[in-house]
Amino acid sequence: MSLKISSALISVFYKDGLEPLVRLLNEQNVKLYSTGGTQTFIEQLGMPVTAVEDLTGYPSIFGGRVKTLHPAVMGGILYRRDVPEDLAQAGRHQIPPIDLVIVDLYPFEETVASGASDDDIIEKIDIGGISLIRAAAKNYNDVLIVSSRSQYTDVVALLSQQNGSTELDARRQYAGKAFAVTSQYDTAIQAYFAGNAQPSEATGPIYDFKALSANHLRYGENPHQQATFYGDLEAMFDKLHGKELSYNNLVDVDACVSLIDEFADADVSAFAIIKHTNACGIATAPTPKEAYLNALACDPVSAFGGVVITNKPIDLATAEELTKLFMEILIAPDYAPEALTLLKSKKNRILLKRNAINLPTVMFKTILNGVLEQDKDNQTEVTTQFKVVTEKAPTESENRALEFALKVCKHTKSNTIVLAKEAGPLYGQLLASGVGQTSRVDALRQAIDKARSFGFDLAGSVMASDAFFPFPDCVEIAGQAGITAVVQPGGSIRDQDSIDYCNQHGLAMVTTGVRHFKH
């Protein structure tokens, strides 16, 4: 059933992105009702708007706690246009219809996260807004509800294409999104009263993901699979150039972000090149250009068509090297103007500028007929946490290389072995890794063969393992290849076998007590 929108109630906390929608409604001769700051915003755009107080004949009271909870507003939303008795009552009480409701909610979760006082947090529990959303969603048969600023662009497209009309299926779809918003909001409030100081980390964006903006992708992991990303990519990145991100792109971008964040606090330039979620190259160096060239040297073959990320702004010198490589995506915190111009020379290359936002601290995975939840692996061991278990302790240089290797190891598919070296004071370089193998011996042999194929001398290099060694075979192979220091979790009942081999052949070994499987 198609319905033409003749009137709209707009009352939002966030005004960003609202202007195009307001202008379109005005062009389509939609009568606008509004409150407070939103009313002022619309008036400043030079558009006619009726104050809700004029509609209700009643002022906003109790510091704004009550302004839209009135029969003239709620009735205009809720009365059924196909029920004669409802129509008669609306006429008798002079209640005009409200066909479109654009409302968001007070920023409760953001206020909690800011460390505000209890009084300030309580004032951010929305009453009128959530009532308007629920009312409009309930009466989706006659009303379109827009419950999030993330929906504005889609609604503009919808109303432009249909000349201000909406179909029942679309209204029902937006009603479903609205109830997801209210569910997420109430869950966050419940979490706060239950003593969870960070409800957004455990609820909202994960449990009620369909409340978020839906980005329909071309296809999923393979062309025969459909896929949708639920989330705010625009908050995470500014897309400066290139085609739309695909499912596989997003998976690799996530891996890139997780890995490069290991170097977020380091006063060094870091570059990582990801292929199928594993690092085929990563290095730190004094400049972005040096870091990139060292990362590329790890495996220039696999780097072809990869996803590249850095923790520093990209200058022209670095861009001149980057543009020689065919890559799918490049991610950086910023770009020099001349670097951006050069990098845009390739039509389909995706250039992302990463914004600083907080990421969830929990992970979810669908499995069988349910969902697994776990904390993110946010622990990375440093030298002060190493336990030296061999007669020989690692040198300072080896310790720095071991720290670097561990950062890479925890983000590489198990079973994994990572080989690395120090590339000058305070800097590191991946030499090779063995990834996703069914045995740790296979992972090590893969890493050694790969490093040698690209001309690396493993003499004096270090090795990191994501789990312990149940047999001494790995340290034997490593020692014969020239590796001089090893870091591993420890905990095997046969740890001593590996320790004994290291002592007999002059290797240093440290344990961390922490395993970093990545399945």
Give the topology:
Blueprint (H helix, E strand, L loop, with lengths): L2 E2 L2 E5 L7 H9 L3 E4 L1 H9 L5 E2 H5 L14 H8 L5 H9 L7 E4 L4 H6 L4 H6 L4 H11 L5 E3 L5 H10 L3 E2 L1 H26 L5 H4 L11 E3 L11 E3 L2 H4 E5 L5 H14 L8 E7 L2 E8 L2 H11 L7 E5 L5 H7 L4 E6 L4 H7 L6 E5 L7 E6 L2 E6 L11 E2 L7 H14 L7 E6 L5 E7 L5 H14 L8 E4 L7 H9 L3 E4 L6 H11 L2 E4 L8
Helix pairs in contact: 8-10, 14-15, 15-16, 18-19, 19-20
Any overview of this molecule?
- It is a single chain.
- The chain is α/β, with parallel strands linked by helices and 519 residues long.
- It is built from 20 helices and 23 strands.
- It has a 6-stranded mixed sheet with strand order 10-15-14-13-11-12, sandwiched between helices. A 6-stranded mixed sheet has the order 18-23-22-21-19-20.
- Helix 8 (128-138) packs antiparallel against helix 10 (168-193) and helix 14 (288-298) runs parallel beside helix 15 (316-322).
- The longest helix is centred in the middle third of the chain and has 26 residues, at 168-193.
- Mean pLDDT is 91; it is low at 197-206.
Name a few traits of the molecule.
six-stranded mixed sheet; alpha/beta; 519 residues; elongated; 23 strands
User: Mean pLDDT, rounded to whole units?
Assistant: 91
> Order of strands across the biggest sheet?
10-15-14-13-11-12
Which percent bin holds the helix content?
A: 25-40%
Rg, nearest Å: 29 Å
Provide a short characterization of the protein structure.
This protein has 519 residues and is an alpha/beta fold. It is built from 20 helices and 23 strands. The strands form six sheets. A six-stranded mixed sheet has the order 10-15-14-13-11-12, sandwiched between helices. It has a six-stranded mixed sheet with strand order 18-23-22-21-19-20.
